[in-house]
Amino acid sequence: MGPICLEPFAAILLEHENTILNKDTLIERVRMRMSQLLPKINENFFVSNDVGKKLITLEVLKEKFEPYKGTNWQVHKLTPEERTRPVRMRLMDSSIRFIQKQIQGQEKAIEIALAKSKENRERIQNIQNERVKLYALMQQQMSYYEEMEPKLMDLIKVMIGNVD
Fold first, then answer.
1. Of 13, 15, 42, 60, most Cβ neighbours within 10 A?
2. For the chain, which residues make up each domain, given as ranges?
3. pTM
4. Mean pLDDT of 98-103
């Protein structure tokens, strides 16, 4: 510090404390006050900016990115393919997610279609069973009618013959 820097301090001291100090005394007083204030300022800085937690976070990040230590991060030396690889990988990931969603939608549609198909098969099977039953019943009725036809014809002849 030079004498020019201390003139404002001397003016303030003269104004407030009515004291005129020489350069050495003024330097000593300023040094003493600064040495009292600096630890408080430093402490307030560390407390207000939460430096402790930030240092812990920094150490955690150092451990996390330890595998990348010594990696060459100079982008200008990379080939165009190496530069665009992260973008292409993200695009491929989004394409894969899109396709997976489409596949999930198609799987749901297939499940619904299979359930409907199963219901329709059961209906068709029930109808087929009913047809077989009805066919058997018709055959039974036809054979009964075929057995009854000669008897009915005889009865008709007898009734017609009795009328005459």
1. 13
2. 1-66, 99-159
3. 0.39
4. 97
